[in-house]
Amino acid sequence: MKINDLIKENYKLLDKNDINLYSYIIQEKTDFVEKNLKEFSKKSKFSESAIVSFAKKIGLEGYSELKYLVKWEREKIVDFDEKEIDYTYNDITLSMNMIKALNLDDLFKNLEKSRRVYVIYTGYIQKNLAEELKRNFLNIGLIAYTLDIKKDLELLNKNIEKNDIVFALSFSGENKSLIDFIKKIKKEIILVSITKLSNNKLSQMSNYNLAFQSHEVYRYEENTSIRPVSQYYVIIDFLVLKFLNYRSKNKKKNR
């Protein structure tokens, strides 16, 4: 069984610290399998007891078994397995559970107050997602502007105001061009990132991170792989649904 399946099965037992630890382990797999418990605890800043507790919460005996599972996933030859359909289903389900459980009321308050909303992106998939998010926002009365990070920095800095909201879309959360673009924004902004679940730079920079679970399901060349991305759309669909629910609850309170 894959570690993300164990996460899904035991998700209700996990707290925020457990999810952050899982993100770190997935991002730093090599470091994790090469270090003993004491070394990894020191490097990651998670306590030894927290790491062991996490392993037990997801049904493992302890650190050694967790390390073996991560090592096996890292080293196994990636080829298509019929179980990948179930694994991908679990990824999508976990992504829905995570976004559903997030309390985004503070973000929604800022959205209601914001004068402008911007969406920046990298890559073809993220561009399509940005347009979909823009369309969905327009349907609920929010105007969003999509920006190309290669040419729209000057335009953004000319128009952006303090506390405007910027949505940043990046699968890995490590895209240097996107991160450099954000660092060059002259005003203090509210940054919302949508990335895969990992301990990535973009999520660390963000006021809010909306994360999803995804994994490589098939590799057919050394640097070419298939990795499902429907979770991206799950996140923006749930974002809009939760925002509509927030508005509805507030209307009832004010009647």
The termini sit apart by 51 Å
Q: Residue share in helices?
A: 55-70%
What structural category arises from helix and sheet content? alpha/beta
The shape is globular
Report the total helices: 13
Which radius of gyration do the C-alpha atoms yield?
A: 19 Å
- The SSE order reads HHHHHHHHEHEHEHEHEEEH
Biggest β-sheet: count, sense, barrel?
A: 5 strands, parallel
Mean pLDDT: 86
Approximate strand percentage: 5-15%
SSE layout:
Layout: H1 3-9, H2 16-27, H3 29-34, H4 37-44, H5 48-57, H6 63-75, H7 84-101, H8 105-113, E1 117-121, H9 123-139, E2 144-148, H10 153-159, E3 165-169, H11 176-183, E4 190-196, H12 201-205, E5 208-212, E6 218-221, E7 224-226, H13 230-253
Parallel strand pairs: 1-2, 1-3, 3-4, 4-5
Antiparallel strand pairs: 6-7
List keywords for this structure.
five-stranded parallel sheet; 255 residues; 13 helices
Written description of the protein model:
The protein is an alpha/beta fold and 255 residues long. 56% of the residues lie in helices and 13% in strands. The protein has 13 helices and 7 strands. It has helices at 3-9, 16-27, 29-34, 37-44, 48-57, 63-75, 84-101, 105-113, 123-139, 153-159, 176-183, 201-205, 230-253; strands at residues 117-121, 144-148, 165-169, 190-196, 208-212, 218-221, 224-226. A 5-stranded parallel sheet has the order 2-1-3-4-5. Strands 6-7 form a two-stranded antiparallel sheet. The termini are far apart.
Quick overview of this protein structure:
By secondary structure, the protein is of the alpha/beta class.
